[in-house]
Amino acid sequence: MKDTNYSRKLAYMGAGCGVVLFAVFGLLPGSFLGGVMGLNLAGMIFGRPLEAAILPRVIVAVSMMLGVMVSATMALMASSTLGWLAGTVVDTLKAGNKELAAVENK
């Protein structure tokens, strides 16, 4: 019997597309926005202008990584959810066609 679970297949395809979209459109803006948030946070804690100490640099680096992770999560979740929804629609339409064919054969 052939596997006709299109929702799972299209969710994986959507996740793959999300990785590509993240690499193209999300990596740099996520890093940039996280870095700006880290600079603002470090500026509030240590005062402006920031000195070249270790702790403000760590805060900025951690916030940059957090920005990249949030960007990746949003890209992957959104694209895989859209793929899953498209697969669910295809599965529903295929199931409806099979039920309709079974009713017509009786």
List keywords for this structure.
106 residues, mainly alpha, 88% helix
Task: Please describe the biggest sheet, giving its number of strands, its sense, and whether it closes into a barrel.
Answer: none
Helix/strand class: mainly alpha
> Number of helix segments?
2
Q: Count the strands?
A: 0
* Overall shape: rod-shaped
What do these coordinates show?
The chain is an all-alpha fold. It has a domain at 24-90. It contains two helices and no strands. Helix 1 runs antiparallel to helix 2 (54-105). The relative contact order is 0.20.
Entry summary:
This protein is mainly alpha-helical. It is built from two helices and no strands. The protein has helices at residues 6-46, 54-105.
Q: Which SSEs are present, and which pair or pack?
A:
Elements: H1 6-46, H2 54-105
Helix pairs in contact: 1-2
